Amino acid sequence: MTEKVQEALGRLGIDDEIVAASIFMPRGHFGGAFAGGMIGGDIGDSVGSLAGGVGLAAGMLAGQRAADARSGLPERMLVGVSAGEVYGFDTHREHEREPTDLVFRLPRSRVEVKVHQRVNVRVVELIDRESGSKVELEGPRMPGFHASEVIDALRA
User: Fold this and answer.
1) Every domain of the chain and the residues it spans
2) Based on the number of CB atoms within 10 Å of its own CB, is 9 exposed (0-12), middle (13-18) or buried (19 or more)?
3) Contact 26, 138 (CB under 8 A)
4) Which overall architecture, per CATH, does domain 2-28+72-155 show?
5) How do the pLDDT tens digits run along the chain, 156 residues long?
6) pTM for the full model?
7) What is the distance between the alpha carbons of residues 40 and 60, in angstroms, rounded to a whole number?
């Protein structure tokens, strides 16, 4: 993932060295799936067991999409960290996630980093010290996402 973000920076003409990269989702993504699944499953169960499963799946997707839309951020982002910056790229997927548009670029000297531990995710808040504006992300606690590498780099 580090190489993919590095290549994306090169395409934009940005000369910087990425030390860590990971896939993140907007804050609330997994909570939205949980809440949507509960509601959809309950509605489907009132019709029958097969409808309960369909309702659960549909509710999860709807909940995730609603949470993502509320955030104003893309559903999946590649977040890269260098010594001086934090970059967030939108992604598209063919075989693997590929970075597309640059969504945010934050100077680390102005960013306060807060990490909150949750059951299945780590919530990362990137807070601009001057304006107070935030980028709030969720990094899954699953292999292959590498959220801990980005969190460790942000804390260094």
Assistant:
1) 2-28+72-155
2) buried
3) yes
4) Roll (2.30)
5) 899 999 999 999 999 999 999 989 886 645 444 444 444 444 544 555 555 454 444 444 444 555 545 556 788 889 999 999 999 999 987 667 799 999 999 999 999 999 988 667 888 899 999 998 888 898 887 777 778 899 999 998
6) 0.72
7) 7
